[in-house]
Design goal:
The structure is a homotetramer of 348-residue chains. Chain A is of the alpha/beta class and 348 residues long. Chain A has 14 helices and 11 strands.
């Protein structure tokens, strides 16, 4: 019953095997090895377009570096009020951009809406030196609320971005779960929808620690190597970072893993939906479930050792449950039983 | 004959085994797991003092974060002209400190001398707002020239630091090689010699990607977590970073590995010293050898596929050879043979 | 009828005279002259406490430097949603703090309320490395809405600051107008109320370009000189900056000027309050008036050449009128007549 | 006998008069007034080219902003070891560029030589992510040693800049003295010689506090307004900054002033050259004189109240004397007499 987060999970066996296999012979460091050198091609195949790829060890780094490509120091970055880049990055985007301002916006179920973005931009007149200048829109796909943007929804945001000459960034910490949830191609919800830069996550879905900044416009990526190096993100034994991503993409492991996580979330969500006293706070479209329960029940579940975090949004008494590539149906069922049992006790 | 760098080497089998063993069960992320939680104790034992430890994935990050603890944005950091933080960090210390100035100084064989530091400080009067303010001394142990500071040499630098209220940082990317080379205790060349913060390297000596910022004064480390997180260096699946360091320290693996690398460097150095036409540029006290050879010989060795980098310092026609924890004597001997053969050809 | 801003006004004759008088003889630059050296005493007398004073040329600089004293790069600064530091500084606080996050909060009539601040702080748990750390509260006195905080209101905010170990900053771009409006002593609404640092404005109230960062705790001010210099704010011919502030304080010119501006605002406010169709958006407690008028009337007044800016807050069709130390009653009356005339026309 | 610096001098009467004259009527702030709006034209006339001009209050700000236009955060800026931007800006260029690295280079009499710059660039390979990337060359005209670059010397540096795609910046804190010294047109030693951005100084030559960033390529200047505002350098009562520059350029006041300062420097230099025991350290080509004297003589001159600063470069016992637009011949002669007298005493 450990639903703290998908990064509580282990490393997928295929990725551990790839790491072991890569551990052979002396090679050039800092990306001069064969695995690192062929990584761009693998990504280009997945995205059906030649892309620039920079592997890094954390999602915070990927997001902050991506935003540094899109925003000057005097820029404004529109994002959702619940976004990880705003709430849980300890100011990493501000650090990497040299002090840009994140503009947190409301929107249902963690999703940014074009009108809200347009309204925020209208309050920051272009060319007026007194205010920061709108520079980028950044959304998470899947969102921090476990929902996903459809290709059309992304395209509508991209249209706002284009109109105001803003960059469009996708925080794809759970990109695989979004692709799996939408059953679309990676291209459809990235460059084809107008996305400029993607933070492509693997860690939460089976890697040990591997993410990638993916630039759909090669020119955008030119500064990336320097920014990464000076951020301390150029790892020396790069083959071990690259091979995680390679194994992750190979034979669609990333989608297989994500489909399983999503299926477990669905199982959890459906069961919760049937329980009186449990209310789903958001539609469950990926691998995160937000459910509202009586305070007493939450406390008892915690005492019982169930693993989850409390969430203040959208209402108190909300808890977050995250499923992962190796969540077992038995864990889901056990949790559901625990909830039922506690609700019964509370109600009696 | 692959002597590019010690980070060209593989991961030590003991560390790979520890990674595999840690890959079991769901645990709290971001350091909330048992392995991460007990890491501080392991380091405190090794250093014979309670220390604050922050694991990160790269040495660049460790150094930049350490310096950010010691220098304000308007600070000056005295370092050697050949130091990695000055030459090969793409400005990471400047980034993390908010724009401090590195003051590169000369010194024989990559080592900073107290007089040179004192002279540099004298040119930056304290309290004079027009110049940056001396804030820290940073030296590498082992140095970028493959030499090591004795405890007394470090203490002499620390005395300058104390006199001017500067912090004292050790870049220990090859700290194990220095300890092995000096046959001293880790404490002797760190806090007992007046060091405030150490970048403790493991990657170059058998880890996959694991370094640690070690603060000998706990108060110094209070800001570290935030600076690391906002730098994008807080990894989510922390157990896999922590366990590398744990395995590295366990049963003195770090020293065993370093002793081997040093022994191979010694073997290489002694053989080169006996060859007419090969001149060692620096004393060989750890696992790096800098040797000057005729240009034609260098070119031929390159053509032959020997792995090394050219170095501009101290003179042209210098190449750097680095041995690692798993360098085989046969590689060393083969390289020596190749040098002899090429010198003979060149001379004939 | 030029009510654009109080910085549209000229320089007070007493200050122009002081500038001319200071223009005599060669003196040491960068504050080594007699006028600069005695400035601290003048401020200490005014504030009834020994204070550290740093003169700068702009209010943006004063605020950004003050906040850099109070917040680390990973800090959060609570401020009002309508605050100048958030809306009209183009990110200067972010720049000077190294990327801190401003947390804009709602509050009636431009005033921050303790409960709102406490709630914001509660969402940023101390010691949790994932979020920025609450570091400072910053309020404007007078506010950007032309209202003022009573000593008790400031003390209540200061209590929140103390409880959470935050710094407390006052943006006093219109500090004189606040003191005049409250008829209190400068000490009462600064250090006696718990304020740590004040941006003391003079430019808007008769100076040519002179503000001062005033630290009530000397220890806080130690870094100020360096931050100012590296920000490019240490002027060489400092006597001309210092003498403006000296003349400003002399014989209570600052209060005389402010009382006039406030009286003109009062005259304007009372007349507007009596006009059907004109609605005052905020209480008028200093020298700014926000009034809501029919769109047609605003357009006509603009066409007629009346000088003011439109304001989006709190509702559209709001305009801002600012009076200054040399606003003439005739201008006020002419404007009132124009409004009446236009309202009549619109209504007929 | 006050030769501390040219910024020890007063404000030129013509500029004081212009300030008084501008002090009339309410105008739009932040550059919306008529004087500010016509300033670009005045500069374009002087430089015989349409230029972008941003007035600021200090030379530190002008230089730091100019360099921020030319260098990314991971850039390297080649400058002279004696340059003000390196030695006496407390890290302002590092701050405004986001942490770029200044590369201090040697060169005779404060002048950078193309070969030294080329050698420095060669050590920072382009495209190699481990080192900062050469981004700009910055030289002072006149230099900090009182010498000037000929148009050809500048063009030779510009050729290096162009070859490596670097920006070329001129620190013109004493630009007027250089133009006067060379008897050339402003265009000849700026854009015609390949300069991209000029820090145009006025403060040291008669203004109260007024400098300008001048961009010879308008595209370069697009970010300038934002960087300036967020640096706290957009003054509200801009007319008083603009009018100083206007009066400074009017009727060639700037050149008249500079010619006088240079003539006084020449008078001082010639007299010193004739004195046994006084050695000029550098050619005197503008308004600064560096002279080496016996330590005892320097001490006695100081005791006597003569105003100058000691300089560590090129040798100890060097003092710097700076003449200004209103230095009187009598002061020069009195100083010469004092030196002679003290030398006689010392020698007797």
């Amino acid at each position: 019953m450990r639903f703290w987060s998908d990064n509580s999970a282990t490393v997928a066996p295929q990725i551990m095997a790839a790491l072991a296999e890569a551990n052979e012979g002396a090679v050039k460091s800092y990306g001069g090895d064969a695995i690192s050198e062929r990584l761009g091609e693998a990504f280009s195949r997945v995205f059906e377009k030649e892309v620039t790829v920079l592997p890094v060890a954390t999602g915070t780094a990927a997001n902050a570096l991506a935003l540094a490509l899109l925003s000057p120091s005097y820029g404004a970055i529109c994002c959702h009020r619940e976004s990880d880049i705003h709430l849980h990055a300890c100011g990493a985007p501000e650090f990497y951009t040299g002090g840009a301002k994140l503009v947190p916006l409301d929107g249902p179920h963690g999703k940014l809406e074009p009108a809200a973005v347009a309204a925020a931009i209208a309050e920051l007149p272009a060319g007026f030196v007194h205010n920061v200048q709108p520079a980028a829109i950044s959304v998470a796909q899947a969102t921090e609320c476990g929902t996903v943007y459809s290709p059309d929804e992304l395209a509508a945001l991209a249209a706002v971005a284009r109109k105001h000459k803003l960059g469009f960034h996708l925080d794809g910490a759970r990109f695989a779960n979004a692709v799996a949830g939408l059953d679309c191609s990676p291209a459809e919800i990235t460059w084809q929808a107008g996305v400029d830069v993607l933070s492509f996550g693997a860690t939460k879905n089976g890697a040990m620690g591997a993410e990638a900044v993916v630039c759909f416009d090669p020119a955008l990526g030119e500064r990336l190597g320097y920014l990464s190096k000076r951020g301390g993100h150029l790892v020396s034994k790069m083959r071990f970072l690259a091979v995680q991503l390679e194994a992750y993409l190979k034979d669609d492991l990333w989608l297989t893993n994500a489909r399983h996580a999503n299926a477990m979330a669905e199982r959890l969500a459906q069961a919760l939906a049937d329980i009186d006293g449990a209310v789903l706070a958001h539609p469950v479209q990926a691998n995160e479930i937000f459910v509202t329960l009586p305070e007493a029940v939450i406390t008892q579940l915690e005492a019982e050792g169930a693993g989850f975090y409390r969430w203040a949004y959208p209402v108190p008494n909300t808890i977050r449950l995250v499923t992962s590539f190796n969540t077992e149906p038995e864990q889901v069922d056990a949790f559901i039983e625990a909830v039922k049992r506690r609700l019964q006790t509370a109600g009696s």
